[in-house]
Amino acid sequence: MPSPVRDASRPRGGVPRPDTAWADWWAGTRRVDLWSTLAWYDIVLRYRRSLLGPLWITLSMGVLLLGMGPLYAGLFDVPLKRFLPHLALGIIFWHFFSTTLSDGCQVFIGASAFLKQGAVPRSVFVWRSLTRQLIFLAHHVVLYVPVAIWSGLPCSPRMFLVIPGLVVAMVNLHALSITLGFLSARFRDVPNIVTSSLQLLMFLTPVFWFPEKLPERSRFILYNPLAQLLDILRLPLMSDSPAAGTVWFLLYFTTLNIAVAAYLYRTCRRQVVYWV
Amino acid sequence: MALIALENVAVSYPIFGADAASLKTTLTSAATGGRIGRDTGVTVIEALRDVSFELRDGDRLGLMGHNGAGKSTLLQTLAGVYPPTRGRYCHEGSIASLVNPVLGIEREATGYENIMIRGLVLGMNRLTIRQLTPDIAEFSGLGDYLHMPVHTYSTGMMMRLAFAITTSVRPDILLMDEWLSVGDAEFRKRAEERITSLVAASGILVLASHSASLIARECNRVIELSHGAIIRDEACPVREAASQS
What we know:
The complex is a heterodimer. Chain A is an all-alpha fold. Chain A is built from 12 helices and no strands. The longest helix of chain A has 25 residues, at 80-104. Chain B is 34% helix and 29% strand.
């Protein structure tokens, strides 16, 4: 006995089924308890059986900085007091970018067990990855405090510019994780492409070296988005301000980035379960 | 109030990394389930075709069909995992899926942590989960094992935990793939009691099984699938004495 079926997008009572991409994204974003717990367990479970636990995150970065600082200060012939803060922030933020992007490739592939349990909003897994990487960043960034004190960097209100910088970085990393997550689930070559590109990009980005040492004709390599994102995070913390060009560049890049992510979210969020 | 309504639902999905033209896939399509079509070079499995039915409070549907006929895909579609490619599906009421309850159990986490994770995935909030945790712990009968990482559990224990969490909130709609096959006699008895009480409390049960006698015992309607399409849909009288046991 066939009977009329009501519009699936508007069930009577209960939570409306997230039928539009925006509704799905927002439904996932609102599940703070879910993605923060998943991210937290990711960290806790990883270090559960180690003696020092998450302290290892800070410790291994500290060892890297102490080892590389004097060596590269000598190689580049720059005083260590000037080089170390530059290097510390460079490596810390680069590590944040690169792990977030390579992790971003796995957001849906790694969530296969959850996606096949029921209808879970897709953005939950993007937030989970981003939160996990933010926890790592928090463990790393504390190292900058002793470095800044030792180098005698002046404190200035400009440092607070890092907050809008961080917001811009988060927006871009979130959008890139969505893009890379869907593309990687569909085309399994993408994670490999991203990993190898990031390796190259690390040397094309002023992580170690000073951008002003670059010859005029090679300046164009600074126009890679990650170098620009690094600028808006690093310069404020060194009591400097990013150039106007950086702000304009990032404005265009962020818009494009969000547009691509939104398009993929709209077209892929249903099919992704078949791909993982 | 529980309701499930499907209208001309079709589910087809692409399989990447399979050679659509190979002889093997052509042969297996004859032997097993869904129709394997060819669509722009990618193998597309047509797992469900033109499936329509409606279930209301108290309905207990038995799904039959040979391996790969689409039973599990249909259950997964009802659970919201697979969005219909064509047609419409809507439901009212909360859904609990026991299709693959062990899926998503975090092996490194303890039993208690898994209760939290699974509860959150099921859409509960932290407070509700904390309130339900004693009940879940008691029902699972795992005692102090709940403080241990799940990888120390046996399959049966993992099943107990997963079942206890999934059925802890009274779902309106219960989806099952075969009857509980894991667990000892004592746990199975309690699990059966819980399922019976869930279904009795005005819910919907959808049970996929190969056992005609099980379906005859538990269900009041039976749908048989073949190659992703419904080939039989009829009411079957429940033997009251048997269903109450």
